[in-house]
TrEMBL record:
EC number from the UniProt entry: 6.1.1.-
Record key words, sorted: Aminoacyl-tRNA synthetase, ATP-binding, Ligase, Metal-binding, Nucleotide-binding, Protein biosynthesis, Zinc
GO MF terms held by the record: ATP binding; glutamate-tRNA ligase activity
Name by which UniProt lists this protein: Glutamyl-Q tRNA(Asp) synthetase
Amino acid sequence: MRSRFAPSPTGPLHLGHAYSALLASDMTRAAGGTFLLRIDDLDQSRARPEWEVQLKDDLHWLGLDWPEPCRRESEHLGEYEAALDRLWQMGLLYPCTCTRRDIREALSAPQEGAPLTGPDGLIYPGTCRPDTPPTGPRPQDVTLRLDMARACAKLTAPLTFAETGAGPDGQSGTISASNDEMIRDIGDVVVARRDMGASYHLAVVVDDAAQAITHVIRGRDLFDATRIHALLQRLLDLPTPVYHHHRLIRDEHGKRLAKRDDARAIALYRSEGKSPQQIRAMVGL
Ligand code: GLU
């Protein structure tokens, strides 16, 4: 078993992160496996070296350990480019120039009953989608979307993944998604961003495969996005790990903790004299 905790160094580590990291490490240790730390610093406009230093310090303080050097996304941009090239050559990507506002306006008269948002935000109305796949070299510094219908048409077997935790509605076991659901509920997701290169969905799939991750243990908020990851794994001939989506740590109002929720920062609890055992108890471990 190989698992990972993959924080983005864009803010303080809070209770929600601590729970996710501790759970992944506990489960992996119990199985005699290897727990890895990965720094998801793809978004260089928000990632800060200070946050990376702080989060490693907090994780060590919590009693976690991992082999060093750990993978940092910003050092592997060529691997994401190669994956994008491959999808481009398969005719599955197209450039998109829509702003968020363009998309909202195009969606302002939605088809009755069609959901407006999916795991990747607003479901793209297809404004820039070409009738035939673009040819020639892959354009750089543009937003690229995955043509979901074309991508699903490449599948030779139904899309599935194994869930050992649970999704938001208690989904567990073998999770499957039909092509129609992928097109209707997810749509043409962004796989490359103008300012960032690869998108999270593309990078996470490449990273997990490069690190030979067998078990992805992460928050339930990412359950719906997992179908996107399973699809990209199929398209890129990468293995699909086992997924374990865990409950989310909420504040006293029942709201999910956000990155900027500094009130629950581990560093703050540390400065107040709390122990790692007390943090474990606070998150129910
Ligand atoms: N950096 C991502 C996050 O913090 C990782 C998500 C994942 O585990 O796939 O949400």
